[in-house]
Amino acid sequence: MTKKEIIEKWAKEKKVETLIKKHTDFSNNPYIEDLVQDIYIELYLKDNELIEKLENDNEIDYFLTKIIRNNLYSKTSPFYYKYNKFRKITDEIEPNSDENY
């Protein structure tokens, strides 16, 4: 199987989503779906040999868990800088029902 086929197989199996649910509740963070997409993109950027080895040796769960934990819990992770830090320093804008748009 090619790298693309392997990653598509993992996506159909919802590997990343399943592993993220073990570490956090999806409702706690509105950016979890973005993290899922970022991880799949990261997988596409990895070497073909690595992806094939992870599939052949059945080590994908361990590998993805490491990426997920780093992104969710590290303040130096790309996920933290892109989403969590921004969410913490901004307020959500609530639409005012009295105004006409």
Detailed description of the structure:
It is a single chain. The chain is an all-alpha fold. It is 67% helix and 0% strand. It has helices at 3-12, 15-23, 32-45, 48-56, 60-73, 78-89. α2 crosses α5. The N and C termini lie far apart (52 Å). The mean pLDDT is 83.
Attribute tags:
single chain, mainly alpha
In short:
By secondary structure, the chain is mostly helical.
Computed over alpha carbons, the radius of gyration is 17 Å
> What is the arithmetic mean of pLDDT?
83
Helix and strand element order:
HHHHHH
Which range best describes the helical content: under 10%, 10-25%, 25-40%, 40-55%, 55-70% or over 70%? Answer: 55-70%
- Please provide the count of β strands: 0
Number of continuous helical runs? 6
Assembly annotation = single chain
Distance between the termini: 52 Å
- The shape is elongated
Largest sheet: none
Residue runs with pLDDT of under 50 for 5 or more positions = none
Structural class: mainly alpha
Strand content: under 5%
